[in-house]
Every structure is written in C-alpha cells, then in structure tokens.
Amino acid sequence: MADKPEEPERGALAPTDEELTLTPSETLRIAVDLPPAPPREVPADEAAVAIDDVPVDPGFVASPTEPTTTSVAIVASRLATGPTPTTETSGTTPAQPAAADVPPPAARDGVSRRDRLRGETSPQPESAAMLTADRLLEVNRKTRPGPEGTWQRFVYNTTFHGVNLGDSAKVRARKELDHRIQKQFEGGARFVPVLTRKGGVGKTTVTTLLGMALASAREDRIVAIDANPDRGTLSERVPKQTRATVRDVVHKAASIGGFTDFSALVSRDETRLDILASDTDPLLSEAFDENDYNVVADLAARFYSIVLTDCGTGIVHSVMRATLQRADEIVIVSGGSVDEARLASETLTWLEANGYGELVSNAVVALNTATQGTNLVKLEEIESHFRSRVREIVRIPYDPQLAAGSVVSWKNLKPLTQLSARTLAALVVEGLPAERD
C-alpha cells in the first residue's frame, strides 16, 4: 500500500483530484476556519418560546412494538399576547400556565383605586355604596373637616383654620369604632337572635343596647322584634308610640305595601331604633308560632338591613326553630353568677347538638355584670371558658338607668356603658356576611 500523504496545514489549499489519490480505506480530513454567524434578531411581534429541559437516556432506544410518547410544555414569553401554547400528546394533561402570566385579583375582578384615579372604569357594575365621601371628595384645606378635641380645636381656631393637628386619640378611637359598625351589606337583611336558656339575665336589655348602638352609628334601618312566647318587655325600653304588636303585623300583612305602612306598627326611639312589640295578652301570645314569626320576618326583611330578635326565655319554644333557621349570627347573654354562666354554656351545647355548630363558633357572648352574685364570681374564669367556645366576649357594666328596667335613653347612659354597647355592635357586624345571594 502506498504511503499516506501528509495532511495539508490549516488554512492551506487542498490538493486537486489529479494530485491526490485515496483508497477506499483511507480518510481525508480538511479543517476550514469559518467566521461566526451573526445572532438572529427576533422581531418584536414574534413570540419566543422556552422548552423545558427533558432528561434523555442515551442508552435507551424505544422499541418499535412499544412506542412511547413524551409531552413537552412550551410556555410563551412575555411578548406573547394570546393564550399559552402547549404541545401535548395522547395520555397527557394540558400544561398549566405559568404563575407570572396569571393576572392579579385586582385585574380580574375590577379596577383598583389607582386605576379609578386615572379615569378607568370598572368592568363590573358598581353599587351605590361605593360612592363614599372618601372616594369623591378631594382632601384639602377647604374640604378637610376641623379637628375634634379641646387642644386641637383651640389651635385650629387660633390660627384661623391654618393649622389642623387632627383629631385627638380618643376621637380617632371613636371614629374607628364607628367605621367598624358602619360595614355595608348587600343581598338582603341580616338576622341576629339574642337568646339564652335562663330568664332574668338581661337579654332584653342587651337587645336594646345592641339595637341602639347599631342605629346611632349606621345610616340604614334597624329593627328589634320581641318574639317572646310569654309577655315580652322589649317595647317598654323605648317610648311607646303605638299599641300595635306582632299579632297586628300578621293580621295586616296582606295590606302592608311599603315602609310607611310597616312603620305605623313600630315604636322608634331617639337613635332611630324601631321596636316591634310582642302580644301583651298571655292567651294570644301562646298562639304566636313559627309560621307567624316567618310572616313578620319576611316583612321586616323588606324594609330593614339588620333584624334583631329577642327570643324570650328558653330555647325550645315554637318560634326558636324559625329564628335559628334565619340566623346569620347569634348573641348569647350570660349573667355573672355560677348558675347563669353554666346555663349559658349549656345553651351553646344544645345548639351544637342540634346542628348549629357554625353559629356557635361565630357567636358573641354578652356577659352582663349587673346580675346578682357578680361580685363573688371570678369573671375572668367565665370569660376564659366562653373564649374556648365562641368568637368574642363583651362585658356589659352596671348602669343605674338599665337597672331601673324602664325606658332607656341612649344619651343618658354612662360612657362606659355606651362603649360596651358599641363594641358589641362592632363585633356583631364584623361577624355578619358582607355579601349574600
């Protein structure tokens, strides 16, 4: 065999066919230096794609009799404007879009406050409750209200409204509590029964305080219904303006066409709380059953945002089932004695055993400290017990006006009593659903 010719140097010209003769078993190698290719620029309207790395086993070769398929997800880059493209084969599930491509909740549900300031409109119809003063009024020297507080007001007037130090800490706390009570609702009335197994613990008093605190802070209508199967005393806590009772509402239900007709059957106090009295005749009060309550509740739901129900003594009377079926939240009233606290706890046990566990976990306990034996009992231990079963607990302090058992004047209550009632109202409102079908 002839000697193998030497390979030409890199960059040298290769010999021609006449000068080079190779046998079939010999190999010719030629090295050529080429300039690097310029990178290709992707047009702006062309979406780039990224293919996830798929591990490949070089020693594995698919059998012709057992074909296999592999699905590779192709995710469009941020330049893409259409839906996420995917490449899939049989037996696989579509690839999920990347988390970065999912629009934020504000973009899906509507526009944010910043978007509204830019003039953008919401894709969903807005309710009238969204037209608030905070949204519509531009805060400046003219529209900003004057401060509340002795020193703050003095500085404000002395400087001819030039220096506004803002409200005092006490006023800010009051306005914050007002804001919590003024939570807006959509989708019908909210029902809040006030109940306990024992009488004489101040359940009617708590219903009155809760209703007054709600009515004094909110702009919508609040009504308290006396559903006591015995003779209730709820109507005696406000100045009586009518002798009508729940029985009259049942009889006149077909003729009640608007709020004017219904308002003629209730009594209203200085806070705008409406009270619907119970029957005063014991013979008639026994006839007030769950069907009658449903009639009254249906009418009240047409005209009021929050309906309080004074359920009377006990929890097994005929009206209780209809009351609990409509309840969005419950308030349990407990006294400060051992017996009263135990019966209030047994009320929670009865509710849990009868399928109202969700109401129990969301309940608020009003601990009336004006009952007998309160000074001899460790109230902290009672609160610790109820805190393990319900959502919140509020103490109702002793007040001479409440102890008299007569008409209650909201403005004449002690500041601590008003604060307790407003705290109870805020906790109750926070436990109610804001929206409902």
UniProtKB/TrEMBL annotation:
Gene3D superfamilies: P-loop containing nucleotide triphosphate hydrolases (3.40.50.300). Residues 196-337 form the CobQ/CobB/MinD/ParA nucleotide binding domain. Residues 81-101 have a biased composition (Low complexity). Residues 1-24, 80-128 are annotated as: Disordered. Pfam families: CbiA. Transmembrane segments: none annotated. Residues 1-10, 110-119 have a biased composition (Basic and acidic residues). InterPro entries: CobQ/CobB/MinD/ParA_Nub-bd_dom, P-loop_NTPase, ParA/MinD_ATPase. PANTHER family: ESX-1 SECRETION-ASSOCIATED PROTEIN ESPI, SEPTUM SITE-DETERMINING PROTEIN MIND HOMOLOG, CHLOROPLASTIC-RELATED. This is MinD/ParA family protein.
